[in-house]
């Protein structure tokens, strides 16, 4: 095993990239989708199921873990990997997005983000230094700088203010990382700038000047719509090094992933597979299936008769409809498991298509299939 963090670009098909991120805890095949383990668990799915699905890395959430059970406690218990029983790589976010989306009251300043816990109202100050310290206490392999993520749409001046603050916090985060980190860990910078191409370029160039082993594109998938998101990617990615991994945060639908990979993104995370599963929505190669729909109540077909994966093959749509309508936990577990498998199959299919130089045709065919209503062919 290596003791260093490295990225290896294996091949390209157009602008779609096949590569691997190498860490002391194992390699991450890219394009990669990271299941979200918000509170040291991927909701409704066993970690051996996540691993068997093909996931090389999980995401942990700094905001939630710092509030409960606490970073210092997890550190005393041996670190996040041991605590949750996952020995492959873990990426932690900085907590900035959750401060924006969950906090009862928040106030941004040069020092950091002051907020009230959504759990008990406790007032907390999260600085770039404290965010990095927490992530190092957790022991994550890839960490994120603290940034300010704002809601869109926003005025230019507000996007500029948050972007420039995030750049200053990036430099402070890197300095703190040098103090707290262990060998083999890596810190990514986060490109901000809202929907403005000039701000995105300034942010990307500023982060490249600070120099990080990887770069994230943040502040998207916050209500701006796919067309705008893809435009921002087109305007941002050319300003990031080809020799470093690119991570699009919080995205998204299968279509989002395909279109973003086509533009050169390497890594993704999103709660969509498990959140959708808990609410009765399954992703299949023939489109989405809303299993709560009444038409499934007497449908003896499996979710996908072409699949060999147990959650797609072994349970009838009628049974799954019954479980969801009855609010039985098993229904959410089966569908979350199924969606976790589908997302990893999707990434594997993209990697194969890029390796074989047929990504453009695969993209066209797959997007057409995913537009279906979920009915088996």
Describe the fold and architecture:
- The chain has 377 residues and is α/β, with parallel strands linked by helices.
- The chain has helices spanning 47-53, 62-67, 71-76, 80-84, 96-102, 128-138, 156-180, 197-210, 226-236, 254-262, 272-278, 310-313, 317-325, 329-355, 359-370; strands at 6-13, 16-23, 26-30, 32-37, 58-60, 90-92, 106-108, 113-116, 123-126, 142-144, 186-191, 214-217, 246-248, 267-270, 281-284, 287-290.
- The strands form four sheets. The protein has an eight-stranded parallel barrel with strand order 4-5-6-10-11-12-13-14, surrounded by five helices. It has a three-stranded antiparallel beta sheet with strand order 1-2-3. The chain has a three-stranded antiparallel beta sheet with strand order 7-8-9.
- The chain is 42% helix and 19% strand.
- It is globular, with a radius of gyration of 20 Å.
- It has a domain at 6-30 and 61-230: Alpha-Beta Barrel (TIM Barrel), CATH 3.20.20.
- Helix 1 runs parallel beside helix 14 and helix 10 (254-262) runs antiparallel to helix 15 (359-370).
Task: Please specify the SSE layout and strand pairing.
Blueprint: E1 6-13, E2 16-23, E3 26-30, E4 32-37, H1 47-53, E5 58-60, H2 62-67, H3 71-76, H4 80-84, E6 90-92, H5 96-102, E7 106-108, E8 113-116, E9 123-126, H6 128-138, E10 142-144, H7 156-180, E11 186-191, H8 197-210, E12 214-217, H9 226-236, E13 246-248, H10 254-262, E14 267-270, H11 272-278, E15 281-284, E16 287-290, H12 310-313, H13 317-325, H14 329-355, H15 359-370
Parallel strand pairs: 4-5, 4-14, 5-6, 6-10, 10-11, 11-12, 12-13, 13-14
Antiparallel strand pairs: 1-2, 2-3, 7-8, 8-9, 15-16
Helix pairs in contact: 1-14, 6-7, 7-8, 10-15, 11-14, 13-14, 14-15
